[in-house]
Amino acid sequence: MEPPAQHRRVTIVDVARHAQVSTTTVSKVLRNAYGTSPQMRAKVRQAIADLGYRPYAAARGMRGQTYTIGVMLPDIRNPFFPEIVDGLTDILWETDYQVLMAPGRNGEKAEARVTEAMIDRGMDGVVLVAPISSRTHLEHVAGIVPTVVVGRHGHSAVYDTVSDDDLTGAALVVDHLADLGHRRIAHIEHSETDPRRIAEMPNAIRAEGYRQAMRARGLEDEIDIVSTTYTQQGGYLGAQQLLARPDRPTAIFAGADIVATGVLQAVSEAGLAVPDDISIAGYDNTSFAALGPISLTSVDQAGRHIGANAAKLLLERIADRTRPTAQVKLSPTLVARRTTAPPPPA
Amino acid sequence: MEPPAQHRRVTIVDVARHAQVSTTTVSKVLRNAYGTSPQMRAKVRQAIADLGYRPYAAARGMRGQTYTIGVMLPDIRNPFFPEIVDGLTDILWETDYQVLMAPGRNGEKAEARVTEAMIDRGMDGVVLVAPISSRTHLEHVAGIVPTVVVGRHGHSAVYDTVSDDDLTGAALVVDHLADLGHRRIAHIEHSETDPRRIAEMPNAIRAEGYRQAMRARGLEDEIDIVSTTYTQQGGYLGAQQLLARPDRPTAIFAGADIVATGVLQAVSEAGLAVPDDISIAGYDNTSFAALGPISLTSVDQAGRHIGANAAKLLLERIADRTRPTAQVKLSPTLVARRTTAPPPPA
């Protein structure tokens, strides 16, 4: 039997074929499980030696690879993240790496647990999507395992970053609404109070982009930001606050499409029509935004490209840990749909 | 320094504290990385011995645990699956197990790769959500690692199953629509042609439940099933076919909420009003269905309970691999919303 080609990792399937036993038997031998005869064990061990197979666990001790890449996602309900994951797997599916995902739960403690778990399992690299951990923690992780941080700004000497230009993205929304004739344009942001990370978080940068663009359009007196979270519930509660204003906004810029879903909910419950009574715009251009009955104006930050870029950077860093870090920033575009229109007559 | 409590697993954080070094140093020693002094290595190794810490990799060789549970999800875009994942993590977050998820991509080859990767990494247990693999493959996996299969019917002697009663769920929809006065009720199913698994797949059982309920209501001549996929695109294409019928249905029962999103899209593009011209019902009762502007009638199969049940069964199986397998079936309920109403006058 031919040995497998050198560029491909030897798997237990190869070992089973070579030893002429089932993969179940190989697994049992590897796990020292019950139910294998001494003869079987000898056959499997010979095949392992012949092919140079390194079981996952053994590989680690010899500074080898585990062929595993960990992806931490803040929230698996946000329909934007599958775009990033698709971009990652487009690239990694063709390699020997297995992607394993874990929820970061938008919390520093949960993120610490997840990153520790990934390090502890000897993963070869990690992609951290929109982490909220301190930069110190991110650099700690990156000091141990090749790391790409997605959706967070700021340059690091130890990890690569991929994000979109959130400042420009927010300005695209404000300009679109102002061009339609809106002045009372409000924004719902994901609350960010930690001064150590505020300059790096996409949510904070979108809010800042909103402020800058409002000022640039001479609308500084109309700046109105509600702080909740980037969730459906956050959008719902934020919109309820805005709709209760004596002089309610004629347009709401939700910081993410998932936020816009909650805004639509609150607006609908208030008996208002979109876009006749109020315009709504989101951010992320998810498949939800494109859906006919929703047809949400949104900012396309090309999540799939973000994911693909992150995968490529990570593979390069795994191959050479000493290369200088890269900071990739992609340009967003506006997709105007039916939720935005001129404001109602005053 | 006190040793950690016996019930909790010793982590590298404990080792670092005990050795009075950073966790980075512990990780470096464990990985045999550069940049640690012989003195540091000695300190860390002493702490490892004192605390009885078993690094992940070492644990496996001694038939130990890796404290990892793998969850295979068919499609991370389907908003139903986060419900199951939430139910799983509700239970597992309180334990020392880390949940790692991988996409099964609705394909036998991809599922084989993912399950092999989970076995190869020594995971302690796996949860396979709506797998399409042959029963032979599922039993192969379960023969190696404790396994719970979610959303697929059929009893196995080697793995536990948790599903909802899809036959009843489909009947709830047909009865609701028939009670409103509909006769031309069509169904969009996820195409299932493999005779080896057809009796076990939730999609096939929903289609069968639809057929049985139609017959029970005397509507056997109106049975009309379009086979696509449980995706937004599948719903869109399925609805386009149904709307092109000379005598188009007055109600569409989509096999999943994600399918209903595509149906809404096609209906909206055809210039039809919901529910005035056509009623639409889904299955899964996702947060999307509850959304105000959508307000989709749907079947609640209690995904969170399904996930929690799966986690509990898996923990029990990890603790005792010889216990008899369980088959848990949960009862669905109908949540009627604004997308269903009496049919338009003939």
Automatic annotation (TrEMBL), chains A, B:
HTH lacI-type domain segment(s): 10-64
Keyword Transcription regulation included in the entry's annotation: yes
Alphabetically ordered keywords of this record: DNA-binding, Transcription, Transcription regulation
Listed GO MF terms: DNA binding
A Pfam cross-reference name: LacI
Keyword DNA-binding among UniProt keywords: yes
Protein known as: LacI family DNA-binding transcriptional regulator
